[in-house]
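=== RUN LOG ===
request id: a7f3
mode: sequence -> structure
chains: 1
length: 249
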Amino acid sequence: MSKYKVGCHFIIYGDRPSNDLPGVLTEISAAGYDGIETGDPTAGGRSIEEVNGLLSSHNLVTAGVHTGYGSPEHFDGMIKAAEAAGCGYLMVSGVGGNDSLDDYERAAEVFNEVGRRCNNAGIKLCYHNHNWEFKDFGGTTGIVKLYESTDPQYVHACVDTYWVKSGGDDPAEFLMRYAHRVAYLHFKDMNPDGSFGEVGHGILDWEAIMRAVDEVDVEWLMVEQDRTDKAPNDSITMSCRFMRDVLNL
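=== RESULT ===
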């Protein structure tokens, strides 16, 4: 049995989870996933008890919740949401601007404090990269500055394989370079034209990526494909089948 759990991020479904959560969970469960990642779990107007009950009835759990940069009050709310969902990870994207290294240094102060509060709640705060953090600022990049300016005890890395490649780095090498920071992974592939692709159906080297993954301490491998030209159910099934059957997860 694999030591990893395979999850599916709601993002590929757009607004549908708010309107048809049981239908979405039925598709995710049938595709072979162990859990989900979402934004605010109660965004569709359901109580957290109802959401947790629906997940349980589909043999799924909430692995993590995902949010953008915001105020201390915003993060307090998301920490409470993660606690209520019973998950151990809070992903955050963006630093409130990416025009200079000052943006990353300012955000690092916020993340250090939020990370301490997450840690006290038994949750890991994980920064989710896109490609813009790889912009060069005279010999360093935003992602390097962010990692250097945050406490690894409180601010972890949620590495997105597609966005690392899009940013000009090699996903496997990046994972090895920052193995001590990585706590959570977002998997998606890159099509030859640079668009989002199903895991195992694009140009990323998944054998090399998995060799690197085996060197880091992660529990969840989360399929997080922002968009697809297929029906979402077909897309998530393709990714899960590759991960289960080819990567033996």
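=== NOTES ===
The CA atoms of residues 133 and 142 lie 5 Å apart.
Residues 101-120 form the longest helix (20 residues).
=== END ===
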